[in-house]
Amino acid sequence: MTTDPREYWLRQLRRLADPVLDALCRRELRQSMPLESSVDRSDCSHMEAFGRLLCGLAPWLELESGDTAEGALRRRYAQVALEAIAAAVDPASPDYLWAPPGELQPPDQLLVDTAFFAHALLRAPRKLIGGMAPGVRRMTAELLLRSRVITPGANNWLLFSAMVEAALLKMEFPADLTRIAYALRQHDQWFKGDGIYGDGRNFAFDYYNSYVIQPMLLDITAAVAGRSEEWKALHCKVLRRIRRYAVIQERLIAPDGSFPAVGRSLAYRCGAFQALGAVALRRELPEELHPAAVREALTAVIARTLDAPGTWDENGWLRIGLCGHQPGIGEGYISTGSLYLASTAFLPLGLPAEDEFWSAPAEPWSSVKIWSGIDSPADHAEQDL
Measured by CB atoms within 10 angstroms of the end CB, which terminus of the chain is less buried, N or C? Predict the structure, then answer.
């Protein structure tokens, strides 16, 4: 691994992005992406790869490019991303990634990954929404609207419907604010304390607070905060809660970059730490979390989950597993496309290279200090957030 963390992160993000984006630009994603899964997921896996990859890539694309080698690289990837979107949203494209036109009841999973695509649009409004040709923008809105026929479950899926509407709002298309309001109010009621939400009414010991719940709540409430005092107050509450959750996440990262392998969807690998990255991206890390220590912790997680032998196939596609190739870790809903939620670990690349997150000297993170015998501050749980 290079001694320059940003260079290493960029290399890993490009390794994730290139097979998906290159295939889409050739309009050959359906033809060329392998489909590793325990059941047939050919009706949704390609949309998963596209939406999830773009969700993590977007903040880096949105960053001002400047006159640097990285800036030139970013401009090229932004253009490639726009070409990929055009291929994905055009019903005449062989890589149209929604259900065939006229299909009345598409697979429910398409709502999930339409939402991840929508989240990417919120995270890069200037480069993605602003960069679209008018026809592509219209087709994108039409694809988002098609997801309304899918009824979300009474759990984190409510946020998928809300995220789609938030993106439509950002694109200046008519949005259903009722779907947003319902999802936000339900999740506020499902808060369990100490920075943790239930996945629905019940608590689940897994990483869905990071895979979906907290990052989507943060960006949806940010998108609508200016529309009412209620939503503005809720955004402040959501931000306080995710900042506490970031403290918990940082303490879960062991000195070797591993973390507790509990709960569903472990094949999302380093994507388990999207929430910590989202807080870092907004420069909202709590005082006890130093940006350089968080950078080092996330670098260790990325290396532990993406550098293990067997992680990638011979053509550069991700394979199912948490540390290497472990097909047994993949639940029935997991397929090749699902794995690209790993890209969301890279959100802090949306911070400029001169930001403290990247420029400050390396620091040990909490578990490194604690398990090295270094005196460290106690962790104080906060119930009333």
Answer: N
Question: How many whole angstroms separate alpha carbon 309 and alpha carbon 26?
Answer: 29
Closest to 116 (Cα-Cα) out of 156, 172, 151, 87: 156
Asked if 323 and 257 touch (Cβ cutoff 8 Å), the reply is no
Helical residues (DSSP H) of the chain, grouped into ranges: 5-25, 29-32, 45-62, 69-89, 109-123, 134-146, 157-170, 177-189, 208, 214-224, 229-252, 274-281, 291-306, 356-359, 366-370
Give the span between the Cα atoms of 341 and 292, in whole angstroms: 24
Tell me, yes or no, if the pTM score tops 0.90: yes
| Dist CA 88 CA 288 (whole Å) | 42
Q: Using CA atoms, how far apart are residues 274 and 280, in angstroms rounded to an integer?
A: 10
CA dihedral 257, 364, 16, 116 (to 10 degrees): 90
Euclidean distance between CA atoms 47 and 320, whole angstroms: 17
Chain-centroid distance, C-alpha 78:
17
Helix, strand, coil percent values for the chain (each to nearest 5): 60, 0, 40
Distance of CA 352 to the CA centre of its chain: 19
Whole-angstrom distance, CA of residue 382 vs CA of residue 385: 7
Reference 348, options 135, 60, 105, 154; nearest CA is 60
Question: Positive or negative CA dihedral for 364, 366, 367, 372?
Answer: positive
- What angle is formed at CA 188 by the lines to CA 51 and CA 346, rounded to 5 degrees? 30
Cβ neighbours of 145 (radius 10 Å): 17
Among 347, 306, 277, 355, smallest CA distance to 57 is for: 347
Q: Is 324 left (phi over 0), alpha (psi -120 to 50) or beta?
A: left
The residue whose two tokens read 């290399």 is 11
Please provide residue 17's backbone torsions phi and psi, each rounded to the nearest 5 degrees: -75, -40
Instruction: Dump pLDDT digits (tens) for 169-218.
Output: 999 999 999 999 999 999 999 999 999 999 999 999 999 999 999 999 99
C-alpha 235/C-alpha 220 separation (Å) is 9
Looking at residue 38, its amino acid is S
Q: Which distant-in-sequence residues (6+ apart) come within 8 Å of 208 by Cβ?
A: 156, 199, 263, 264, 265
